[in-house]
Design brief:
There is one protein chain. By secondary structure, the chain is mainly alpha-helical. It has one domain. The chain is built from 9 helices and no strands.
Length: 218
């Protein structure tokens, strides 16, 4: 637990000094929301039927912005290798960094969801769906954090991340979209989507943390 607290404090201090990724995610998301609003009004589309899918695509890209340089300082300054020499388990490093990025994406998602409610004049109907959405966000950010060293080690790493992430996250994004439909009261609760989203998110989180050590060692 002591190692975990030290790692989390380290990640939090690094993140606090560099809020660029957080602000970039919020700015990108808000710009997207405004663009969606103008487009939907222009083509007279039903916002409720397409907004959940658009929101989760936006959350995905915001997540990539947040996690893209997660390990830049650690790899630049040799902190990762120092931690390796000190026999700090890579699983703890992954958990700590994932937790920090998870807090960031929750902030971004909260801001964007509030903006969407304001711009599209919709309301949250079923507050029970907030917890599954948080769990799915954890699964998404775990995978993005796990793959973020690829962006640092390879100039085409960011592009490679997109290629790898999208197929792996399709089940999560589908479940998240259906759950968001329930959140805004468009459809009734669908237990199979709740189960898929929750179980796949936990599986994604566990596997990402386990595989992180092999990715960072490459």
């Amino acid at each position: 637990m002591k190692k975990m607290r030290i790692l989390f404090k380290k990640d939090f201090l690094i993140s606090r000094k560099e809020f660029n990724s957080l602000f970039s995610g919020i700015a990108f998301g808000l710009t997207s929301i405004i663009f969606y609003n103008l487009t939907i009004d222009l083509f007279m589309l039903d916002a409720k039927t397409i907004l959940p899918g658009l929101l989760w695509i936006t959350f995905l890209f915001c997540g990539i912005l947040v996690t893209n340089k997660s390990f830049e300082q650690e790899l630049d300054n040799g902190i990762i290798y120092a931690l390796k020499i000190l026999n700090v388990p890579f699983t703890l490093i992954a958990i700590s960094k994932t937790t920090t990025n998870f807090l960031f994406i929750l902030i971004i998602e909260s801001v964007l969801l509030l903006a969407a409610l304001l711009f599209f004049n919709i309301q949250i109907v079923d507050f029970r769906m907030i917890l599954p959405i948080i769990i799915i966000s954890l699964g998404m950010i775990s995978l993005l954090t796990c793959l973020s060293p690829l962006s640092y080690k390879n100039q085409s790493g960011t592009f490679l991340t997109y290629i790898i992430v999208v197929p792996l996250l399709i089940p999560l994004l589908l479940a998240a979209t259906r759950i968001t439909f329930v959140l805004i009261g468009l459809i009734d609760v669908e237990q199979h989507w709740l189960l898929l989203g929750t179980l796949f998110s936990f599986w994604q989180t566990i596997m990402s943390i386990i595989l992180f050590q092999f990715i960072i060692d490459e």
